[in-house]
Structures are given as structure tokens and as C-alpha cells.
Predict the structure.
Amino acid sequence: MKRLFLLLALILLGAARDPILVPEISQHEVQVRQGFRGTELLLFGAILTPEGARAGQDYDIVVVLKGPTQSIVLREKQRLAGIWVNAESVEFRSAPTFFAVASSRPIGKIVDDKTAAIYELGLPWLQLSPIGSYDPKEQARMSAGLVDLMTREGLYKQDSKGVKVSEQVLYQARIALPSSVQTGTYTAETFAISKGRVVASAISHVVVRKQGFERAVADFSQDYGFLYGLLAVLLSVGMGFLAGRLFALV
């Protein structure tokens, strides 16, 4: 019985030494208006003891900003008779529309691969599962293809020196959102890591929403999908007719 109490006391004392994170974001709402060219988010905060004092240890910080998930179809290109055509296609059921990781050091020097995979602490460990049955090598190849495509579009990114830690108390990271970001709720998760172990984590949220004319069009398309589609067809036909008349007069 005494051993049990001693073990519980040691566990409680060990947990008390773990720090807490107090995160904050420069803006919790991003408004997408006409001419939106992207923005930069500042994610910052403090590493403290449960009593609110300075933690007093060396910690690495990793910040993961993930956008809303959606179904994404990846199509491979194949050269046929000198022409590039669509070949095999793969659908990912719930891939993040945006994924960015910033860390105080390279992830490989902070945690092992297993821990990195559990918390998705980087592009190599992003968990993407295509719909269907594939062998592990083929699944890894398709996932790498999607990551490469999204990286080239600026929607997936990783910065191994993107977090600055000051006196092991304050940290900050800057993550740019491109103009092509999807609307929805973005999750910013911050991890404090010591000796290869995640000792604390905290979550914040950012809402990206359309404003002005763009929001009115988006709301109309969602609330009145049939009318929106009909108007889009009529507008296309009208523009085509007008273009034909103009070329006929030339």
C-alpha cells in the first residue's frame, strides 16, 4: 500500500513539473474581401509553470496550423502520343486544405518518427488516407504526390526555424496565408517538447470568412444552389452570345 501511495506521489510530482502553454494569435478572424492578397498570422505565447512562473527549462516549440478538411481528388498526368492527358486519379476523403508547421529546430532533432507521426509534426508525417485499398508503397507515393502539389501551390509548408523562443518563456511564429486559402475554421495547435516528449499542448482557432460581395455570392450559392447554377449558365450563354456578336461586327 505504501508503495502505491509513493508511486502516485511521484506521478503527481512529475506532472506538476510539466509546463503549460498560454497561446495567442494576432487575429482570430481573417476577412476575405475583393482583392484579398493573403495575410500573415502571428502565433505567440508563453511557456509557464502551473503556478504561472517561468518554466526554467529548455523546450522546443512546434506550431501546427491546419485548415478545414475536404475531399481532394489527385489526378496523375501521363504522356500519350506526345500529349499530356489525365491518367489514374485518387480521392482523399479528408485532406486539410491548408497545413503549415513551424518549429524552433528541425523536427528530426526534436522528436522521433513515431512521436512526429502521432502529432503530425511535419509534412512527412501528415496522415493522408486515400479512398480505396492500396499497398503501403502505393499509398505513400500518392500521399507524397498530394503533398508536393499542395506545397507548390503554397497551401502546405514547413519551416524548421519558424519559431523563435526568447529566454525559454516567450515564443512566436509567423505563418503566411495565401490568397487562395479556403474559408472555414483553422486550428492552431502549439506543442512544448522536452527530451523528445510532448509535455504540453494548447489549441487556438482562426476563422477565415468572406465579406462584402464575395460573401453575398457564397451565401447565395449555398442557400439557393439551383438558382445559382441557373444564373451561372445564363451568364455564360449571355457572355458567349455577346462575344459572338462583337466578333461578327469586326
